[in-house]
Specification:
The protein is α/β, with parallel strands linked by helices and about 425 residues long. The protein folds into two domains: about 10-125, Rossmann fold (3-Layer(aba) Sandwich), CATH 3.40.50.2300; about 145-395, Rossmann fold (3-Layer(aba) Sandwich). Helices cover about 35% and strands about 15% of the residues. The protein is built from 15 helices and 13 strands. The chain has helices at about 15-30, 45-55, 70-80, 95-100, 115-125, 160-170, 190, 200-205, 215-220, 255-265, 280-290, 300-315, 340-345, 360-365, 380-395, and strands at about 10-15, 35-40, 55-60, 85-90, 105-110, 145-150, 175-180, 220, 230, 270-275, 290-295, 325-330, 350-355. The strands form two sheets. Strands 8-9-7-10-6-11-12-13 form an eight-stranded mixed β-sheet, sandwiched between helices. Strands 2-1-3-4-5 form a five-stranded parallel β-sheet, with helices on both faces. Helix 2 (about 45-55) packs parallel to helix 3 (about 70-80), helix 3 runs parallel beside helix 4 and helix 6 packs across helix 15. The longest helix has 17 residues, at about 300-315. It is elongated and about 75 Å long. The protein starts with 7 loop residues before the first strand and ends in a 30-residue tail after the last helix.
Length: about 425
């Protein structure tokens, strides 16, 4: 079903009656999720029927009489842009490139499976027309600062940090900031920032040319109050593989590298949200970052996983210690621990302390307005988040705890780290 609970309305366009019947049979197995509202056997009919029926998505063959599918797609985009999925027996890159340039959302090569068909139609119905057709190329202008926010455990407030850091860095429009959601399967950054993107990171990865700042300018959804440009995660979890996995159209390309480089060329700051893993796209973000913020909370399982993550970042990946800073969220919800205990057990100082305010966090998430934009005087959490953004922007660090980084013991060996309760 579509987001409204109604069946996804499909227009089938193919000059073969047998193909149309086969597709209808496939869709009938999907328990009412799709409704075939019309059929056409050439491009001219497709344009007319699309205007008359206004379906959610068009399944369009390429090679047809009267008008081919690519030309018909371009006409539909001019008159009433909707999601189009191109189908063809030809899988050449030139056909795919032309289809995407015309505005198609996806391209299936016959014969395709029912799973491939359903996935493409769902995605096109959710995402709508491809906004990337014929985007011009622009030369890079500058190298902005990249900040990646990471955690090794879910539920510690990582995305809240991203939303508020990005909004705080924007400074009411004084600086240009982009926020990228690399939590590819289940990212919620767009929702957290109150934007409804017309395109996502997947659309960029379907381009058959190097991703440029101008491509990104067409895809970023602007947070109304702060002006932060948000690059949303894929609309459906299975599409993550097109960004970072076996589903990439061109496995020789590193799409995330292209995206980060294009964003930093036109933004003062690029803030990246991540998944709870060391998957390839996260590793790329770490490498490209000027600063990595590791978010945790004062709870044993979170601290244990944070210690393991810091070990990977600092010891195995050998990032400089000043590149990795820690954020202790909900720092006032400590039972039986002190900030000094936590810092000693992690082996690094706690750079930022963010107090808890469950009500403010829920209101911010439900309204899509980051807390730093509400400017509530005397709010400890707002003050702490704003201060963190100011420190990050200035290239410094707050070092909210008095515990210094552990110094080597006599003989040059690292000082022993006292572990909390023997858990880590």
């Amino acid at each position: 079903m579509s987001g409204t609970g109604k069946a996804i309305r499909v227009l089938l366009v193919d000059d073969s009656y047998l193909v149309r019947q086969s597709v209808k049979a496939m869709l009938e197995f999907e328990s009412g999720e799709f409704e075939v509202v019309g059929e056409a056997e050439n491009g001219l009919q497709a344009v007319a029927e699309a205007a008359r029926l206004v379906p959610d998505v068009v399944l369009m063959d390429i090679n047809m009489p009267e008008m081919d599918g690519i030309s018909a797609t371009a006409k539909i985009m001019e008159q009433h842009p909707i999601g189009v999925v191109i189908i063809s027996v030809q899988g050449e890159q030139d056909y795919l490139r032309r289809a995407m340039k015309a505005g198609a959302r996806d391209y299936l090569v016959k014969p395709f499976t029912c799973e491939e068909l359903v996935g493409a139609l769902r995605s096109a119905a959710v995402s709508g027309p491809n906004p990337l057709a014929a985007a011009p190329v622009a030369a890079p202008k500058r190298q902005g600062k990249v900040i990646t926010v990471f955690s090794t455990k879910g539920g510690v407030g990582k995305t809240t940090m991203v939303a508020n850091l990005a909004a705080g860095l924007a400074g009411g429009g004084k600086t240009t900031v982009a926020a990228v959601d690399l939590d590819l399967e289940f990212g919620t950054l767009a929702t957290m920032m109150g934007v409804r993107p017309q395109a996502t990171i997947v659309d960029l990865c379907r381009l058959h040319t190097t991703i440029t700042p101008d491509h990104l300018g067409r895809v970023l959804a602007r947070q109304q109050t702060s002006g932060v440009g948000v690059l949303a995660a894929p609309p459906l979890p299975h599409l993550a593989s097109e960004v970072d996995g076996d589903g990439r159209a061109d496995r020789s390309r590193a799409y995330v590298v292209e995206i980060i480089e294009a964003l930093r060329a036109t933004h003062d700051f690029v803030v990246i949200d991540t998944s709870v893993s060391f998957r390839e796209c996260n590793l790329i973000a770490f490498d490209k970052s000027d600063l990595i913020l590791m978010v945790t909370q004062p709870e044993i399982t979170a601290l244990e996983s944070t210690a393991k993550g810091l070990d990977v970042l600092l010891d195995r990946l050998e990032y400089p210690r000043d590149k990795v800073q820690t954020v202790l969220n909900r720092c006032d919800n400590i039972v039986g621990l002190s900030h000094e205990d936590i810092a000693n057990s992690l082996g690094v100082p706690l750079t930022y302390l963010i107090p808890s305010d469950p009500q403010a966090c829920v209101v911010a998430a439900n309204t899509g307005v980051p807390m730093v934009l509400k400017r509530v005087k005397g709010s400890p959490i707002t003050d702490a988040l704003s201060r963190m953004a100011t420190q990050v922007a200035g290239g410094g660090k707050e070092v909210a705890t008095a515990v210094p980084a552990l110094k080597p013991a006599a003989g040059g060996s690292p000082a022993p780290v006292r572990r909390l309760f023997g858990f880590f």
